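Honest question from a wet-lab person: if I give you the sequences of every part of a complex, can you actually get the arrangement of the whole thing, not just the pieces? Trying it with mine:
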Amino acid sequence: MTDLSLIRNFSIIAHIDHGKSTLADRLIQATGGLTAREMSEQVLDNMDIERERGITIKAQTVRLNYTAKDGQTYELNLMDTPGHVDFAYEVSRSLAACEGALLVVDAAQGVEAQTLANVYQSIEHDHEIVPVINKIDLPAAEPEKVRHEIEDIIGIDASEAVLTSAKSGIGIEDVLEALVAKIPPPKGDRAAPLKAMLVDSWYDPYLGVVILVRVIDGVIKKGLQVKFMQGGTEHLIDRVGAHTPRRIDLPEIGPGEIGFITAQIKEVEQARVGDTITTVKQGATQALPGYKEVQPVVFCGLFPVDAADFEKLRESIAKLRLNDASFSYEMESSAALGFGFRCGFLGLLHLEIIQERLSREYDLDLITTAPSVVYRIQLRASRTDDAREILLHNPADYPDPSRIESIEEPWIKATIYTPDEYLGPILKLCQDRRGIQRELTYVGGRAQVVYELPLNEVVFDFYDRLKSISRGYASFDYEQIGLREGDLVKMNILVNNEPVDALSLIVHRSVAEARGRGMCERLKDLIPRHLFKIPIQAAIGGKVIARETIAALRKDVTAKCYGGDITRKKKLLEKQKKGKARMREYGNVSIPQEAFIAALRMGEE
Amino acid sequence: MARALYIHWPFCARKCPYCDFNSHVRASVDHAAWQQALTADMRHEAERAGGETLESVFFGGGTPSLMPPALVEALLTEAERLWGFAADIEITLEANPSSVEAERFAGIAAAGVNRVSLGLQALDDQALKFLGRLHNAAEGLAALKTAQGVFERVNADLIYARPSQTEEDWRAELSRALDLGTGHLSLYQLTIEPGTRFATDVRIGAFAPLADDPAADLFVLTRELTAAAGLPAYEISNHARPGEESRHNLAYWRYQDYVGIGPGAHGRRGGRATVRHKKPENWLSAVAEHGHGVAEERVLARPEQASEALLMGLRLAEGVDLAELRTRFGIAANGLIDRERLCFHASLRLVREEGSRIAITDAGMPLLDALLGELVAGDLVTA
Ligand SMILES: Nc1nc2c(ncn2[C@@H]2O[C@H](COP(=O)(O)OP(=O)(O)OP(=O)(O)O)[C@@H](O)[C@H]2O)c(=O)[nH]1
Ligand code: SF4
Ligand SMILES: [Mg+2]
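Yes, you can. This is the full assembly:
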């Protein structure tokens, strides 16, 4: 067992891309967790998709041993967290398992929206915060300015902030010393009944369900019979260990420590994060507070391009879900797309990632329908039906308008943080998206604006637009603030005179025409020219509000077929056939699957 | 078996900027070595695809008009010995219209060539310069005259849909070409092929290719003018007075067997596809080592053969006879063509159905590649 005073549990938090994972690399290396040869960049980002996109999606915990200048060897439990707002729940769980946080701030970018959001969460947990100003190697680095920002904006003492370059390995020792000195050791009672927090759970193909725990009191050992206090199930612990980042087995996890266990659990569902684990005999009576449940906010339909792949899609979604309990799914059928699933996600990036993992890891070609939020609709009584309330997840289920008494849509409170030179276009963007300004404050050369915005104006491309109009400098964070009534209508898109249900969406009447025009224009570019001309229309009910026409293709021919060489033409034909497999047919028009989402990106307005 | 023989001569005086054929510039060529190797390659094929007399021979390139007439003659003598020649055999040679080459035409005709395909490419000096050709317009016309005096049949090649070429430009140029009195015209739209100098030029913005819509207009105009002049299109880019069609090329398009020898040549014999080593030096050493230049020989499954027959056959105005293809390849009634798409595109008048034949209409021809993707049954296309 490790003496409590020699344990330090901390999360690394920051705005996206400020260098958390890179700093984690250096800490792992400096403490000998991995040799230089075993090391790779952002070694904890082990999902393909994390590596490719260079972002962290899932929090990761590693245990490191560090012999400090005081001669003592400390057990460090490091939790690397994601910076993107869609995965904020990963941060909150990690924070709950720690006593402190390394707050990483990019020396060139300064404080940004997730810096604030994450640090405030950390402060709520009464954490000791160790500020780290990273990327000081960059020519644009202004560590002193950032130090002031941390003090002025966040209001914590940054006079002893550690200056680092995680990339070039500067200041790593200082970070280790600072966290040993500043982050308090955990408290805990070895003799008390077991109380452990279920921090995370995932499915490992070799070990089954693996559970990350933070022991508060008592000890977890192999062979122990435990009970999940909320879930009510009982399990026999069959493995206890930690990641260093190599997986190692341990005899026990004592109070104040973080580690993993397995207990022959088949489904991740049974190991709900936030649950409290105790012993079956003489267990604790009072559960830990647990976590706020995460609710999906963006919904879309996922359909196999090839209807025969439906079963494969079902299995794949179920498997993915084993590793990511934060998305939801239920079966759905559409006239045009056949059978598929309506899935709920934490945000648009989350949606993209699940979609990409399905197509990549499970080799599925998917059609994604327009993302939508959940609307609450009050229906009037009709001759046959009573008045009632429905939740609309899918625009295709939009009821007969004559029965609609009222529709409510979810709103969010968005906090945007930006250098003030970009403020003008940002305010315009928010205004265009039906935003209501609530606050506008300046700190130094930066502005913080708070807007209330309808979520459906944000789900598609608000974040992309914000990034592009601010050259990447503005950052964004949001929380949900409930439902509000709105004048919402369903807009249909007709391609070659046939409504395409996967493209229909719910819009506010005041923006319907502009949105319809934009969609028709984009579809005109997204749908390749066909052998005949194709009208594209946006309509509300029977009324066409926008239209475009795709001219017929005029030329597509190989002029010369030389000397009996047929190979090139055959390849062309194969490519065409493969391309067709990625399209959907509506009234003889093939729509590429990318078009379904791309059509919604609103672009310059 | 094969009644058509293709012989590839891979050398050119200079590489044209649009050309992606298997053509190479070499300081010198050892004609004796090439004669020996081409002969060996031919014998290899004759052993496997012999038995019937040849109806056509085609010297393609490269620039076969740079071959010494004696070499042409030796190869033809050997071919005749191996296969025998049909009485009315068509023997074509591709020629460039430079004055140097024109001087050889008589010798080439004497060697047995009775049809020449002349790479005029354009009738004005500026266009010829743009196309990187070594001849000017006057030289080209003079060479054509010589050819018409020497060979029984003459084809002229022209490249149109050049950057910023207008309908008026092309109407004038094509009318002049039609007045030249050849029985056959090959009229190719300029395409920018990957790996060519033009591809680089386009990438760096040195010029922009003609857009598809105006190019499509020129295609329509081409069909009108040639038809009016009595040389209607019988294939996408080929126009002939009736009876003057290239019998050799028809063998490809009707998907009959053909022997292909020399670097990079393709052949079809008895359900097998042959491809020869592409680079001249590699081909030469392959022949030296194995007695033939085959780099790849592959059995084509019957569905694949059927798809090839459709790809080739639908280039022709006459189209294909589905009943015949079905028996030939043993494919079920609806296995060749996607019926539903056929009906749809027939309703758009892009395809025509007459009994068991289907053919692409004039309106459909410039869209052939897209139509093939629609019409050819998915099962025929190998994944
Ligand atoms: N120049 C420089 N670049 C750095 C430094 N630290 C990290 N980076 C780079 O910044 C980018 C983001 O680094 P990550 O470590 O993935 O950032 P992160 O905070 O973990 O990002 P998320 O997990 O997606 O929020 C990478 O390209 C790193 O190489 C540094 O000290 N100097
Ligand atoms: S002469 Fe013909 S084969 Fe030779 S480079 Fe020019 S176009 Fe190509
Ligand atoms: Mg990271």
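Two things worth pointing out. The pocket of magnesium ion (ligand 3) is lined by residues A 20-21, 45, 56, 80 (CB under 6 Å). The longest helix of chain A spans residues 509-526.
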